[in-house]
């Protein structure tokens, strides 16, 4: 075979996203509550790292396998303890980052929950802001009595009580949910206003077949807002006077927002008090909605709308004011169901992730970051993957994130890392000689940006069966078809406009096609 050359020059610049600085001002009450939870003052800072350089990480804790966990919440009483719900067992478990998972449940209500449907069981939990003085747990579950959606309070005698009697239950609010077992919602959260919020799905089946999404006479397909304080006296709860539908004839006065399909998880930003709602989609889109603090009455459009598009045009109301999502994604790449998270407000990663809302997909584990940029606009980007089947996120007393996974039953610490800045580059790839089943190739990496590159790794995929056997002026490894070539220290710096060269020797059989794409420190050089 005669010697011949391929010359392939690829030129590209991976552009960094530039995000507007976010206002750090928030309601004073939210700031005070945030500080009271033990989360430091620096957590109000917004990350300056562009989202396209943020990478999420996770580490499984040494907690024993959990029984289909559905929620994880910090108690917020200064003890550092966290609450975890187990769906089918009906158990509430205590976890502390230092001591691990308590052996015995804090509460067991497995005798009264429905578990026939995959989405039924013990679904959500919250501890009140004044837990240290008025200890109690608030839980949401599907009842064994016809699958009724149930919100209950379990009073406690002391914050450090080892177990709570199941017969101490005080049922606060129920909603019939007998036709189908899916779309139960189940998030329970205290807002920055001290009121209790609870989410419910549209009643189940598909396509809102029960016509609940736009029906204000039912609590299905809504998020409700309740006053559960002592000021209600003997009442199980009071309806706050400023709830949006208090004066609307025939409407349920408990409703805070509606037009939702299955708002499985929602959360409040502890700094600005805004509300993030992840609504599980059906046809094409999963969506995340965002409401400013104290803004009730939003209609998110289901079943007329799903994500950014119409779902059922025949059930759209031309006079309705639908609130569009802050972010949505489709069902490609294995995506199936959104798991809403929370805004990161911890100290450890504040400089790179502060102010970023984190959410993931239950099936694909694809994970995204979302940041408001002002004027109702949002910056969004994929930030990597988490373990499969994440069902809930929670923040510990210092604002650091945890996630629980369903059938894997894992408890994971969530962290972040900064990816290297983008590199502006060109790569020349030339086959210098070829014989029998071998060849040599030289590569020239040029920095076409304005800033020097301090340390470089070039990666590419061989489209044939090429296998690198030797290299010079770079440390080269190969995993399958992917080759990585890193500097040797002495040649690590590439000044603006400068170049570095290295070479490889490899074997092949059949054709010897050149690589189609090169990446320098993760940035694609494409021409």
UniProtKB/TrEMBL annotation:
Residues annotated as signal peptide = 1-30
Domain CBM2 residue range list? 418-527
Which residue windows does the record flag with biased composition (Basic and acidic residues)?
A: 62-71
Which Pfam family is one of those matched by this entry?
A: CBM_2
Arranged from A to Z, the UniProt key words for this protein are:
Signal
Gene3D superfamilies cross-referenced by the UniProt entry: 2.60.40.290, TolB, C-terminal domain (2.120.10.30)
**Record's keyword annotation contains Signal:** yes
Q: Which InterPro entries does UniProt cross-reference here?
A: 6-blade_b-propeller_TolB-like, CBD2, CBM2/CBM3_carb-bd_dom_sf, CBM2_carb-bd_dom_sf, Glc/Sorbosone_DH, Quinoprot_gluc/sorb_DH_b-prop
| Chain positions covered by the region annotation Disordered | 30-49, 57-78
PANTHER family cross-referenced by the UniProt entry: ALDOSE SUGAR DEHYDROGENASE YLII, HEDGEHOG-INTERACTING PROTEIN
Q: What is this protein identified as?
A: PQQ-dependent sugar dehydrogenase
Q: Which organism is it from?
A: Streptomonospora algeriensis
């Amino acid at each position: 075979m005669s010697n011949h050359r391929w010359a392939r020059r690829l030129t590209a610049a991976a552009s960094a996203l530039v995000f507007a600085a976010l206002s750090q001002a928030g309601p004073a009450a939210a700031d005070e509550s945030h500080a009271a939870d033990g989360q430091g003052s620096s957590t109000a800072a917004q990350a300056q790292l562009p989202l396209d350089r943020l990478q999420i990480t996770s580490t499984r804790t040494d907690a024993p396998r959990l029984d289909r966990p559905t929620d994880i919440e910090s108690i917020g009483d200064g003890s550092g303890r966290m609450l975890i719900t187990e769906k089918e067992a009906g158990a509430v478990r205590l976890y502390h980052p230092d001591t691990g998972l308590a052996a015995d449940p804090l509460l067991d209500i497995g005798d009264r929950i429905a578990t026939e449907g995959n989405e039924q069981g013990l679904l959500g939990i919250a501890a009140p802001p004044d837990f240290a003085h008025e200890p109690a747990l608030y839980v949401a579950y599907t009842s064994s009595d016809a699958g009724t959606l149930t919100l209950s309070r379990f009073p406690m005698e002391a914050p450090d009580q080892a177990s709570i009697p199941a017969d101490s239950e005080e049922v606060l609010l129920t909603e019939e949910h007998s036709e189908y077992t899916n779309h139960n919602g189940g998030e329970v959260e205290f807002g920055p206003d001290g009121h209790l919020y609870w989410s419910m799905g549209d009643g189940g089946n598909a396509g809102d077949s029960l016509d609940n999404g736009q029906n204000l006479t039912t609590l299905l397909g809504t998020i409700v807002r309740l006053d559960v304080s002592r000021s209600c006296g003997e009442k199980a709860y009071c309806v706050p006077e400023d709830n949006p539908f208090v004066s609307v004839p025939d409407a349920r006065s408990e409703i805070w927002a509606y037009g939702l399909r299955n708002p499985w998880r929602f959360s409040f930003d502890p700094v600005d008090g805004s509300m993030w709602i992840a609504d599980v989609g059906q046809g094409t889109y999963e969506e995340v909605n965002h409401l400013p603090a104290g803004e009730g009455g939003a209609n998110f459009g289901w079943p007329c709308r799903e994500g950014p598009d119409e779902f059922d045009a025949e059930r759209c109301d031309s006079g309705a004011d639908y609130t569009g999502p802050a972010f949505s994604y489709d069902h490609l790449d294995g995506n199936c169901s959104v798991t809403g998270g929370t805004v990161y407000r911890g100290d450890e990663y504040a400089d790179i992730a502060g102010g970023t809302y984190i959410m993931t997909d239950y099936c694909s584990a694809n994970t995204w970051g979302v940041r408001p940029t002002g004027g109702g606009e949002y910056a969004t980007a994929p930030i990597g993957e988490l373990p499969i089947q994440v069902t809930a996120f929670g923040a510990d007393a210092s604002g650091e994130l945890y996630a629980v996974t369903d059938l894997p039953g894992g408890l994971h610490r969530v962290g972040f890392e900064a990816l290297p800045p983008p590199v502006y580059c060109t790569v020349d790839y030339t086959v210098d000689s070829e014989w029998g089943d071998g060849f040599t190739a030289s590569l020239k990496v040029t920095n076409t940006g304005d800033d020097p590159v301090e340390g470089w790794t070039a990666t590419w995929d061989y489209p044939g069966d090429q296998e690198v056997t030797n290299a010079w002026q770079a440390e080269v490894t190969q995993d399958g078809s992917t080759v990585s070539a890193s500097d040797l220290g002495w040649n690590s710096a590439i000044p603006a406009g400068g170049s570095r060269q290295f070479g490889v020797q490899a074997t092949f059989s059949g054709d010897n096609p050149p690589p189609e794409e090169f990446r320098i420190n993760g940035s694609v050089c494409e021409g």
